[in-house]
Amino acid sequence: MTLTLRRRGLAAAALGSLAAPALVRAQADRPIRLGSIATLEGPFAAGGQDAYRTMTLALEAVNFTVGGRRIEWIRESSNAQADVALARARKLIEQDNVDIIVGPLSGAEGLALRDYSRTLVGRTIVNGQSAAADTTLRDVSPNFFRFNTDGGQWIYGLGTYVAREMGIRNVALVAGDYAFPYTQVFAFMLEFCRAGGELTKLWSPLGTSDYASVIARIPREAKGLLVIHGGTDALAFLTQYAQAGGQLPIIAGPVTADQTVMSARGPHRRLMNGMISAGPFVDDSDEPTWVEFVQRYRRRFPDGLQAPSINGVHYYINTQAVLRALAQVNGDLSDNQSAFQRTLAALSFTTPMGTTVKLDHNRQAIGANFIRKVVERGGQLRTEQVAKFENVTQTLGLPQDKFLALGSASRDNPASCAAIPA
Amino acid sequence: MSVNARTLATLAVLGLLAAAPWLLPPFWVANILGRALVYGTIVLSLTFLASGGGFVSLAQMTVAGVAGYSVAILAPDATPLGFGWSYAAAIPAALVAAMLAGLLIGAIAVRTQGIYLLMITLALAMGITLFVQANTALFNGFEGIRGVVGPVVFGVPFRDPNLFYFAALIVAAACYLAVVWLMETPFGLALQGLRDAPRRLASLGYRNALHRIAAFGVAGFIAGCGGVMACFYNIGISPGSIGLGATVNTLVMAVIGGLGHPVGAFIGALLFMLLDTFAADLYDRERFNTLVGSVFLAVVVLSPDGVLGLLARARQALRTALGVIAPPPQPVGPRP
């Protein structure tokens, strides 16, 4: 086993070094090597699987060819741990010699790959779904691009809606204790507290399976429950809260009101029906582009989800960005990909949701966000549109210096509604 | 093998490893061999305890994590920044912290053997992992501490694949030779006595408990060396680096390599890294863990004493076939 592997590696290496000078000249004949990292293991395995479904859709739509060059797709799997994502990225770049990576899926992985991308020359990492704000806000990397809006942008509009339209001024927050929810809680509190709300935070580690202690600590005064858990964590919490006879109206984060959770069967469905949430897309949109996208998805993957998940949508948009930029530069990745990266940075296109996405100076998406309601149709839970906001920036409409002055989102920032400047 | 032949073989392997950057592409140097040497050093601490004293501890990855977290918290260039010491101060402090952690774990587990030792060290490992995951003030919770790039040595950054590789090689070789040497000193011989006949050892006047705790301290130091290197390799550390998966991986590497001799740690680590990196290329990408599991299962079923045992049996069979010496009686091993 060891021997064959080593021999393979040596042979590949020998070939690689022999071919190196010829490669530059023959670039046009060489296929474009596209690597990708998504989580096929761990708590987000269902999301990773869906990400690869929509990437397949995007690549099959162009028949794995762009600008006259074939695309060779090399898939890797991570388990939502930064170390693993980093090891996979190193393997893709250094061993498989990929030109571009699409990924990763979760926040800590994104920060790790952003740091790694800074050490690269002539390679590009285009995010998959990871949505921690700092990845493209502080300490940014010139080789890291993100065409999906971040966790904070996905919450835009929700705080005001809960306080003003729903009239709920006291909310208990149930969320995972890591970067991704921090960003969203930060964004929610900015609006909600300014609209006169109060909030109690109840954190639990990612991968928690027993939420009894969290449920017991929901304060009596709370009139609503803001749930920002994804995947199996969301299922575990909502199931347990339903079984405990929980009655508070649920306000859901974008990954909670997602098909990976809503397609599952169980008592949590009772709580989810009628739930309000915010997020970067809605399942039941009438936009022709969206209808076409969902139809194509269902036809190609009959045993997939009812509609693409948030992971699927974002891997699709980011892959689309790569393909569009490659088409514009005719597959030219020479000169350390400078033309390709310039084109990526200036790209502006219509997403499957029928809204426009473009990048800011930190290579972070400016895009649309939706307030959504979960409804049951034919036994399926789906989200439908309540409100739409276009051109939501990463700084949520604030000037960048003011936004940065609020500090990095963390479990203690903002500490409470009282800590938010008016 | 005679002593001389063994010394020659060791020198030859070290020579080959030192020449690796000129023989192999950079990815193989830093990310296969370098990574195997770093994690092999952590596994070596387990092999030392298991082969020397018969203590199978599941807390060695945790001890490595103590060193990794210490250096990350003390380092001058981490996010979030902790104490901001220089690496010259942070690295020794991390090694001392790992040794103290080893001593402490050894002291807590001092009265347990076999499956009970396994359980108590596993409990400690999980306890510490959950603690660093929940603590955001010092350990930054789930995300851990990032951006620990390591020192600049002779003007070359630690991220340079060759520098990293040679540092890993020197650390691993030093730890390996130290363990081989230590096993032949009175300390090491007494440790083997502790494994085979603790009562007789006690009646000779040895203080078994202290001796055992000291062995855990030594193992802690070795694991710490590996832990610091792993932290630099991963540009930081997070609870996932020391969690259940990492803990089990350490044991898997030790077992497939073979617990009979310290070199087994590195053989196991190399085989593990090769599979971890290339399994997805060889087999269905969504099911590659099946291949990883099958290979490990095959090694353990075919050879209870790991790859080392396979090699020993192959050598024996070859000698018998060549008629060099008569086959010795079959060793009485823990075969089912």
Give an account of the 3D structure.
The complex is a heterodimer of chains A (422) and B (336). Chain A is α/β, with parallel strands linked by helices. Helix content of chain A is 40%, strand content 21%. Chain A has helices at residues 2-25, 45-61, 82-95, 107-118, 158-165, 179-194, 212-216, 231-243, 259-262, 268-272, 288-300, 310-328, 334-346, 400-405; strands at 32-39, 65-66, 69-78, 100-102, 124-126, 144-145, 170-176, 198-204, 224-228, 250-252, 276-279, 348-350, 356-359, 365-377, 380-392. In chain A, strands 7, 8, 9, 10, 11, 12, 13, 14 and 15 form a nine-stranded mixed β-sheet that branches. A six-stranded mixed β-sheet of chain A has the order 2-3-1-4-5-6, with helices on both faces. In chain A, helix 3 runs parallel beside helix 4 (107-118). Chain A starts with a helix and ends in a 17-residue tail after the last helix. Residues 1-25 of chain A have low confidence and may be disordered. Chain B is an all-alpha fold and 336 residues long. Chain B is 72% helix and 2% strand. Chain B is built from 14 helices and four strands. Chain B has helices spanning 3-23, 26-53, 60-74, 87-108, 114-134, 161-182, 186-196, 198-203, 208-233, 239-242, 244-257, 263-282, 288-302, 306-322, and strands at residues 145-146, 152-153, 156-157, 236-237. Chain B has a two-stranded antiparallel ribbon with strand order 1-4. A two-stranded antiparallel ribbon of chain B has the order 2-3. In chain B, strand 2 and strand 3 (156-157) form a beta hairpin. The longest helix of chain B is centred in the N-terminal third of the chain and has 28 residues, at 26-53. Mean pLDDT of chain B is 90; it is low at 332-336. The A-B interface holds A 1-2, 5-6, 9-10, 13, 16-17, 40-41, 49, 75-77, 79, 81-84, 86-87, 90-91, 94-95, 107-108, 111-112, 115-116, 119, 139, 176-179, 205-206, 410-412 and B 24-28, 30-32, 35, 79, 130, 133-134, 136, 141-144, 146-147, 159, 234-236, 238, 240-241, 245, 270-271, 274-278, 280, 285-286, 288-289, 295.
